[in-house]
Structures are given as C-alpha cells and as structure tokens.
Inverse folding.
C-alpha cells in the first residue's frame, strides 16, 4: 500500500485538537511540527521591500557600485 503525505495547517487550537482526534480515531500515524519555514519578521521585511520597489522607492545599482562594496 502506498503512503500519502498530507500537510494541513491548523489555524486554531480547536482545529488542531479536532485533527488530532480524527487521525487517532483512524489509527493513522502523524507528526506535529511547530516549525515555520521562515521567520515572520524576515518575510514581512521582504514583502515591504517588494512594495517599496513597486512604489518607486528602489534604485538601480551598477556593477561598479556593487564591486566597490566588497573593497
């Protein structure tokens, strides 16, 4: 029998409890991970940078300017 992997994102403690109860009742193996793929502050900063760039707040940097940063 082939195994399937499902990723479910519970948004409330009630949803998490209901999912755990269901999976246990079905006698299925499961894992709970509290890890988030990225730090939320980092994601927000990247999104803000994208918005700023689209609003014209960005600037182009030449290769010479980039190379001068490393010296």
């Amino acid at each position: 029998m082939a195994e399937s992997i499902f990723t479910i994102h519970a948004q409330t403690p009630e949803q998490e409890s209901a999912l755990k109860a269901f999976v246990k009742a079905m006698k299925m193996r499961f894992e709970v991970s509290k890890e988030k793929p990225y730090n939320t502050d980092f994601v927000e900063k990247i999104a803000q940078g994208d918005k700023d760039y689209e609003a014209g707040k960005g600037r182009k940097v030449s290769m010479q300017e980039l190379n001068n940063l490393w010296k």
Observations:
- The two ends are 59 Å apart (CA to CA).
- Helices lie at 13-25, 40-54, 63-69.
